[in-house]
Amino acid sequence: MKKLVFATMMCIAAMSAKAQVLTSETVKNVYEVVSTKANSKFAYNADFTGNDITTMYVYKTNDDCRGMLTLTPYLKYDYTYAADGTLTSKVTYRWDDCMSSWACAARHEYTVDDTTYSIAYSHYNPIANCFDQPVDKMVYSLMPDDSVNNVSCYHRADSSSQFQLVSEILITDQPLLAKK
Asked: Are 122 and 140 in contact (CB under 8 A)?
């Protein structure tokens, strides 16, 4: 049930955001927005290669009883891009307090062709020291003008099973109207 709710929310978010192919510029814009937000419970830092963000760090902010602000490592994202600046992967790491180091957690892989834009989500398997096969996938059907006309969300219980369609949303340019 949790996966169904998550997949449906992702499809609705894609629809409401007028989803687009993610690029280096998109990652930079997100970083600029979150890193300049006032009174946030998180602080951000990034490593750049040229104009591209290659790593983004997320820290939890804590005020102690003396009013001192401390930063605790929380998440790290490593980004890779194609030659044209299109995002190809995002690897997520979580801070491990016991080991005082970053622990690999998951990966999003992004692929684009003439008619679709796909995002696949995989968990990291620390025992095998590699990523498992994707368990979630979103496929955006692209129109000739690169707008999205359909979003399909898929899930599978494990890497040996087939993807099952969880939700699908047709996107139109018509405004959504709600009854009062």
From this structure: no
User: What is the C-alpha to C-alpha distance for residues 107 and 48, in angstroms, rounded to an integer?
Assistant: 20
Minimal CA–CA distance to 72: which of 39, 55, 94, 92?
A: 94
Distances (CA, A) of 27 to 66, 80, 95: 36, 11, 21
Report which of 35, 33, 38 is spatially closest to residue 58, judged by C-alpha positions.
Answer: 35
Residue 58: count other Cβ atoms within 10 Å of its Cβ. Answer: 19
> Is-contact 92 77, C-beta < 8 A?
yes
Alpha-carbon span 162 to 154, nearest angstrom: 10
5 pLDDT band, cuts 50/70/90, is: very low
Cα–Cα distance for residue pair 114/89, rounded to 1 Å:
19
pLDDT tens by residue, 64-74:
878 788 999 99
What's phi and psi for 33, nearest 5 deg? Answer: -70, -50
pLDDT digits (tens, 9 = 90+) for 101-148: 999 999 999 999 888 999 999 999 999 999 999 999 999 988 777 677
* Cα–Cα distance, 165 to 129 (Å, whole number): 29
> Which residue matches tokens 């591209």?
52
Average pLDDT, the chain: 85
CA 110, CA 7: separation in Å to the nearest integer? 17
